[in-house]
């Protein structure tokens, strides 16, 4: 007896419509299959090049290739420039010229650089410019094993709203996107909510798109007014700025010390969207870190490698 094929439940942020915004009977059945536990969290599967036509944003066509550790390929018209983070370049056409702009001394003034640094990004950004006479292309990838999450301003992020993101999740952009910082002056949330005092703030013009990197399985949820959920602080990718952050104690002393979640978890109160990841960079780093201990007392004079995960 053959196993039944697993249903394909796709929430494509870059598609013409999002699954959760549809109201037909068939679409509601798909939502039920994507979220059978009624948690409100929808599973996000990136728009793969093998199954989707390329998308268009900011005058560029683009596709995302791969199931994990993905590659973003975008077209670059003659004279046009794609802005990305340091270390994300994979390939490009022959006429692509690479430059690095130090934002502390760039056209935006030193404030742009300091805003990026306080928001958790490098003061340097890479500019990939097509110097040829024909349309070119560039391939970009996150700096660690991750999926690429495309978020379009005015569609996935409400118009005139910003995105509050974890440091380091910003990867690239098409169109006018600005990476800055936002100060959290609350002593409780800035110390215990997982974002710190200087939070990364991403804004953009309508129809511009920011590409974020996130690890593992990506889910998102639309919070209603005054709806509150409790989440792991490090598993947050980003939230709309309309979402309010708070904290809640994780329990008594033994739970705080031995439960693996610390003393506090983060509470998120709507309205607004919340984007989550199952394998954040900290968790990934902890899983693959190898500690090599040199045994100087070895009689052979060699090195005894003790590997721990």
Features:
13% helix; seven-stranded antiparallel sheet; disordered N terminus; six-stranded antiparallel sheet; mainly beta
Architecture overview:
The protein has 309 residues and is mostly beta strands. The chain has 5 helices and 21 strands. The strands form 4 sheets. The chain has a 7-stranded antiparallel beta sheet. It starts with 24 loop residues before the first helix and ends in a 21-residue tail after the last helix.
List the helices and strands and how they pair.
Layout lengths: L24 H10 L7 E3 L10 E3 L2 E6 L5 E6 L4 E4 L4 E4 L3 E7 L7 H9 L5 E7 L5 E5 L6 E6 L10 E3 L4 E5 L2 E7 L3 H6 L5 E7 L4 E6 L3 E6 L4 E4 L4 E5 L3 E6 L3 H6 L5 E6 L2 E6 L3 H8 L21
Antiparallel strand pairs: 1-16, 2-3, 3-4, 4-9, 5-8, 5-12, 6-9, 7-8, 10-15, 11-14, 11-18, 12-15, 13-14, 16-21, 17-20, 18-21, 19-20
Compute the number of strand runs.
21
Helix content: 10-25%
Coarse shape: globular
Radius of gyration: 22 Å
- How far apart the termini lie comes to 41 Å
Could you state the order of secondary-structure elements as H and E? HEEEEEEEHEEEEEEHEEEEEEHEEH
Short summary:
13% of the residues lie in helices and 36% in strands.
């Amino acid at each position: 007896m053959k196993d039944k094929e697993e249903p394909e439940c796709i929430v494509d942020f870059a598609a013409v419509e999002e699954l959760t915004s549809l109201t037909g009977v068939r679409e509601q059945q798909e939502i039920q299959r994507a979220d059978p536990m009624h948690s409100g969290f929808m599973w996000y599967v990136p728009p793969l090049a093998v199954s989707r036509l390329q998308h268009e944003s900011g005058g560029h066509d683009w596709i995302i290739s791969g199931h994990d550790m993905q590659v973003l390929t975008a077209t670059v018209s003659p004279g046009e420039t794609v802005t990305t983070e340091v270390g994300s370049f994979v390939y490009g056409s022959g006429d692509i010229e690479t430059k690095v702009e130090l934002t502390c001394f760039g056209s935006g003034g030193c404030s742009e650089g300091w805003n990026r640094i306080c928001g958790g990004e490098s003061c340097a950004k890479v500019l990939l410019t097509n110097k040829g006479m024909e349309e070119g292309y560039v391939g970009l990838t996150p700096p660690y094993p991750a999926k690429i999450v495309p978020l379009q301003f005015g569609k996935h992020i409400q118009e005139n709203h910003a995105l509050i993101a974890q440091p380091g999740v910003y990867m690239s952009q098409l169109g006018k996107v600005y990476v800055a910082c936002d100060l959290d002056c609350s002593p409780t949330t800035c110390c215990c909510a997982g974002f710190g005092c200087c939070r990364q703030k991403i804004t953009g013009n309508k129809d511009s798109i920011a590409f974020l990197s996130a690890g593992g399985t990506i889910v998102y949820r639309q919070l209603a007014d005054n709806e509150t959920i409790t989440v792991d602080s490090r598993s947050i990718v980003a939230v709309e700025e309309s979402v309010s952050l708070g904290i809640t104690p994780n329990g008594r002393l033994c739970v705080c010390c031995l439960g693996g979640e610390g003393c506090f978890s983060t509470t998120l109160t709507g309205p607004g969207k919340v984007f989550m990841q199952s394998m954040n960079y900290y968790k990934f780093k902890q899983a693959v870190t190898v500690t090599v201990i040199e045994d100087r007392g070895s009689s052979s004079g060699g090195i005894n490698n003790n590997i721990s995960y």
